[in-house]
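Notes to self after the call with IL:
- keep both proteins in one doc
- input above output, always
- annotate only the second one for now

Protein 1:
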Amino acid sequence: MGLGPGIVPPTEEDGVRRTRPETVVWMVAAVLALAACGGGGGTGTASATIETISPTAAADLVAEAPEGLVILDVRTPQEFAGGHLAGAVNLDYQAAGFADDLGTLDRDAPYLLYCRSGNRSAQARELMRDLGFTEVYEIDGGINAWSQAGLVVVVP
């Protein structure tokens, strides 16, 4: 059979059950059909846009805000009071009920997400992905990078 020297193919007598070629074709077709039906685990996030963008791209997003854009600041209330993006709402990542509060938000609304430097917002972004949010943009470098880019920070 051309398997190489010393290699002997198994036989029916060895207890190996042979699969007919047409059975293999049907099995492959079934697997491909299942994969085409959305093997994404049923989370509904196959078409989600969840990404990190530069501060200038974020400023452009805010300037041409898609309908329902929520600017979400995940810093502490004290940090938020020290300055934030115009129109931002505060949801403290470090608060005990953060994940529960996040879960009450509209998963289909677009979100612009940031923290101080990008660590908390990156974790919040992944949580939002896991919760099935469909459009999340995180500011790379957080409000620090936003400020360094010369963009406006509202100080109450």
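Protein 2 (the one to annotate):
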Amino acid sequence: MVAALVMSTTSWNLMTHSDAVYFPLVIPSVGIVASFVTLQFVHIPIERIEARFRLQLIIATLIQSGLCVPILWMLPSELEMEFMGHHYEAKYGRVFGCIMLGLWSGLLIGIQTELLTSS
């Protein structure tokens, strides 16, 4: 979410599109929807709570990955950003790639933390 907020403040294209202004807020909102859907998988018949928790993390990540695709059309077709004196251009694919890198690395961190702290 922090990256989306930084991106929104460095791109004039985002500031001029009314839908794109809400983009940094829609990403975590999609995550909340994915979490509510994932709550339906609590009753999966798995004995160990750690395995059930890990499966729920994976399901939530998959759901959020799919739900992030339609929100990309809130953005303008081309983004122009300036960061530290460099000019960058991005399209939907690069923005989606950044979202997916953050989402899936968060999943890996969550799984690693669960594995290292369970006894």
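Annotation: The mean pLDDT is 81. Helices lie at 2-10, 12-16, 18-21, 23-38, 49-71, 92-117.
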